[in-house]
Design a protein that fits this description.
Low-confidence stretches: 1-21
Bound molecules: adenosine monophosphate
Strand content: 25-35%
CATH superfamily of the largest domain: ANL, N-terminal domain
Number of domains: 3
Mean pLDDT: 90
Largest sheet: 15 strands, mixed
Distance between the termini: 41 Å
CATH architecture of the largest domain: 3-Layer(aba) Sandwich
Number of strands: 30
Helix content: 25-40%
CATH class of the largest domain: Alpha Beta
CATH topology of the largest domain: Rossmann fold
Length: 606
C-alpha cells in the first residue's frame, strides 16, 4: 500500500441544504519517491514561467523556441540519444522501441519531406491516422518545419474530416492507405487547397501513386536526414486543436511553441514525471490530451512514452500496466468507469509494483472512482482539470497532496484561477469560498490558446474583466481546492436551485448497480426544470421498476427532494464524444425531440 484512506472527512456543500461527506484520501509518496512538487506553498513561492523556460534549451544559436527541438533534439545534443523515447505497442502484438536519436533522424527526414512538398512556416499539416509511429513522426517533423500540426481522430467520418480540413485550410494531409480510400478520396474535389496527401501504406508495397498522392515510405527513404530546424519564435503558431464540442460546434484552438514550457512544467509538477519513468497517456492525439501529454510532455521530460495502438480493453490494458512496468498512468474517467464495471477482482489479478501515480482528466471524476482506485490498485486516481483552450493542466491533485475525492485539486503554481460572476461590464471575482460561479484564469501562461482559427470575435468573447472565462461552473473551498459543478450549458435550474449534473451523477454512482450516470434538466411549468437521470448498469444487474425506485430513493436521500432526479431511465450505453465525455446535450435533445445538432464528435463505430 502506498497511500491510505484516513478517517478524516471533508464536507462537500450541497445547495446549502444538506452536506455530503466524502473521505479524504491521503497521498503518500510510493517507492520512496519524493514528489517533484513536494510542498505546495513552497512551490508557489519559487515557481515562475520564466524559470521553467530557462530549464529548456532554446534553439541552438539562441533566440528561438521549438517544441520538437525541446522534445527530441535537445536530448540527443545532451548525449541521451540512445535512450528509448517511445515504445509502440501495435494492435497485432508488435513492439517497437524508438530512441531519441532515431526519432531525431525520422523527424528530420519528415521535415525535409514537407520542404519538398512546398510546406512553409505557418502552413497547416493535418494527420488522420490511428496511434501508429508515423503519426508521432509527422507531428514532430511538422513542428520542426515551422508548420502548424493538426491531428484528427481516425474514427471521424468524411463530414467532420471535410469540415476541419476546410476550416483549417489544410495544405497537406498525412493518412493511411485504407483511411484515404474510405474517407478522403471522395472529398478531394471539395478541398482545392489540399495540395498533397501523404499516404502510409497498409502493407509494404502499398501506398499509391495517383496525382496529388505521396507515398510515405518512399519519400521518407529518399529524404535527407540532415535538417536544420526552422527558426521559430516562442509566439509562432505550432498546433491547431479542434475542441471535442460536447455542447457546441467545433472550433480550432491555436497554440504556439511557447506551450512547450507548460507541457514540461505540468508533466513534472502535476503528473510527477521523473527520469526512468514509463509513462502511459491513454488519450488519442485527436484530443488535445493525446498531443500535450501523449506526445510532448513525456518526451520533453525525457521519460519513455508508451503508445498503445489498441482501444480500451480491460484485460489488455491491465496486462500492459503490469508487463510494461508503467510508473505514471494518465487516463480518463470513461476508462476508469469501464474498469469499475469490469470489477476490482480483474484489477487485482495483476501486480503493479512500479505504478506510482495515476491521473485522470477530461470529465469530472466521481468520488467513488477515486476511492475505488485506492481499493483496486492500492493507489488513488488524481483528478486534474484543463481544456483544449488552456493547452495544459491548470488545476491538479498533486502527488504530495491529500485528495478530497470529487475535487479537481488546486491551481498549478503560476496559474491564477478564480471563481467569477459575469457582470454587465465584464466579470468580477467572487472571493468568498464555497460560492458557485464561473471558473476563470488570469491570462499569461505559455500554453494559453492564442486564437480560434479565423474566428476573432469568438475568441474575444472568452475574455472579460482581465480573465479568460472557461465556460465551466465550479466552486473553491477555503483551502483553495476547486470543485466542478458542470459546463455552464449543462447546469440545471430547478425551483430556484442551480444544480450541477456532476453532483447528481455522483450520488447515483453511489448505488452499487450503477456504472455510469448522466443528469439533465427537462422543462417543467412549475419548477422551471426537473432533473432526469440516465444510467447504465454494472454487469450482473438487471433493469427493473424496483431497481429504478431504489436508485431514485438513494439519490433523494443523498441530495434532497429539490435536487434529486424525478425520473430515471436505464440505457445500455450513454452517448459520448470521441474523447469520452458524456454528451448531455444530446440526451436532452433526444428527450425533447429537438434537432440533435452537431454530432461530428459523437463516438460511433467508424
Ligand atoms: P476538452 O477541451 O475537450 O478537453 O474539454 C474540456 C472540458 O472538459 C472542460 O471545460 C470541462 O468541462 C471538462 N473537464 C476536463 N477535465 C475535467 C475535470 N477534471 N473535471 C471536470 N470536468 C473536466
Amino acid at each position: 500500500m502506498t497511500s491510505q484512506r484516513s478517517g478524516r472527512f471533508v464536507a462537500k456543500r450541497n445547495h446549502g441544504m444538506k452536506t455530503r461527506w466524502a473521505p479524504i484520501v491521503k497521498s503518500r509518496p510510493s517507492q520512496g519517491a519524493i514528489p517533484n512538487l513536494e510542498d505546495y506553498a513552497k512551490a508557489w513561492s519559487t515557481f515562475s514561467w520564466d524559470a521553467a523556460r530557462r530549464e529548456l534549451a532554446g534553439l541552438p544559436g539562441g533566440g528561438g523556441l521549438n517544441i520538437a527541438y525541446e522534445a527530441v533534439d535537445r536530448h540527443v545534443d545532451a548525449g541521451r540519444g540512445g535512450s528509448v523515447a517511445l515504445r509502440w505497442l501495435g494492435k497485432d502484438g508488435a513492439i517497437h522501441d524508438y530512441t531519441f536519436g532515431q526519432i531525431k533522424s525520422l523527424t528530420d527526414r519528415f521535415a525535409n519531406v514537407l520542404g519538398g512538398l512546398g510546406v512553409r512556416k505557418g502552413d497547416r499539416v493535418f494527420a488522420l491516422c490511428g496511434r501508429i509511429p508515423e503519426l508521432y513522426v509527422a507531428a514532430l517533423g511538422t513542428l520542426k518545419r515551422g508548420a502548424i500540426f493538426c491531428p484528427l481522430f481516425s474514427a471521424f467520418g468524411p463530414e467532420p474530416i471535410r469540415s476541419r480540413l476546410m476550416i483549417g485550410q489544410a495544405k497537406v494531409l498525412v493518412t493511411t492507405e485504407s483511411l484515404y480510400r474510405r474517407k478522403v478520396e471522395a472529398l478531394r474535389d471539395a478541398l482545392p487547397f489540399l495540395e498533397r496527401v501523404v499516404v502510409i501504406a497498409d502493407a509494404p508495397g502499398g501506398g499509391g501513386s495517383a496525382p496529388g498522392i505521396v507515398d510515405y515510405a518512399r519519400t521518407m527513404e529518399e529524404a535527407s536526414e540532415r535538417f536544420a530546424i526552422a527558426p521559430t519564435a516562442a509566439e509562432d503558431p505550432a498546433l491547431l486543436h479542434f475542441t471535442s464540442g460536447t455542447t457546441g460546434f467545433p472550433k480550432g484552438a491555436l497554440h504556439v511553441h511557447d506551450a512547450v514550457v507548460a507541457h514540461y512544467a505540468t508533466g513534472r509538477l502535476a503528473l510527477d514525471m521523473k527520469p526512468g519513468d514509463v509513462f502511459w497517456c491513454t488519450a488519442d492525439p485527436g484530443w488535445v490530451t493525446g498531443t500535450s501529454y501523449g506526445i510532448i510532455a513525456p518526451l520533453v521530460n525525457g521519460v519513455m512514452n508508451l503508445v498503445v495502438e489498441a482501444e480500451f480493453d480491460a484485460d489488455l490494458w491491465l496486462e500492459i500496466l503490469e508487463r510494461e512496468g508503467v510508473s505514471v498512468w494518465y487516463t480518463a474517467p470513461t476508462a476508469i468507469r469501464m474498469l469499475v464495471k469490469a470489477g476490482s477482482a480483474l484489477v487485482k489479478a495483476h501486480r503493479y509494483p512500479r505504478l506510482r501515480f495515476m491521473g485522470s482528466v477530461g470529465e469530472p471524476l466521481n468520488p467513488e472512482a477515486v476511492v475505488w482506485g485506492q481499493e483496486a490498485f492500492g493507489l488513488p486516481f488524481h483528478d486534474n482539470w484543463w481544456q483544449t483552450e488552456t493547452g495544459g493542466i491548470m488545476i491538479a491533485n498533486f502527488a504530495s497532496m491529500d485528495i478530497r475525492p470529487g475535487s479537481m485539486g488546486r491551481a498549478l503554481p503560476g496559474i491564477e484561477a478564480a471563481i467569477v460572476r459575469r457582470t454587465k461590464n465584464g466579470a468580477e471575482e467572487i472571493r468568498e469560498p464555497e460560492a458557485d460561479g464561473e471558473l476563470a484564469l488570469r491570462p499569461g501562461w505559455p500554453s494559453m490558446f492564442r486564437a480560434y482559427w479565423n474566428e476573432p470575435e469568438r475568441y474575444r468573447k472568452c475574455f472579460a474583466g482581465g480573465f479568460y472565462l472557461t465556460g465551466d461552473l465550479a466552486r473553491r473551498d477555503a483551502d483553495g481546492y476547486f470543485w466542478f459543478v458542470g459546463r455552464s450549458d449543462d447546469v440545471i435550474k430547478s425551483s430556484g436551485h442551480l444544480i450541477g449534473p456532476f453532483e447528481v451523477e455522483s450520488a447515483l454512482l453511489e448505488h452499487p448497480a450503477v456504472a455510469e450516470a448522466a443528469a439533465i434538466g427537462l422543462p417543467d411549468p412549475v419548477a422551471g426544470e426537473l432533473v432526469k437521470a440516465f444510467v447504465t448498469l454494472k454487469s450482473g444487474f438487471e433493469a427493473s421498476p424496483e431497481l429504478q425506485l431504489r436508485i431514485l430513493g438513494l439519490a433523494r436521500s443523498r441530495l434532497g427532494a429539490a435536487v434529486a432526479p424525478k425520473d430515471l431511465e436505464f440505457r445500455s450505453a450513454l452517448p459520448r464524444t470521441r474523447s469520452g465525455k458524456i454528451m448531455r446535450r444530446l440526451l436532452k435533445a433526444q428527450a425533447l425531440g429537438l434537432p440533435e445538432g452537431d454530432l461530428s464528435t459523437l463516438e460511433a463505430p467508424s
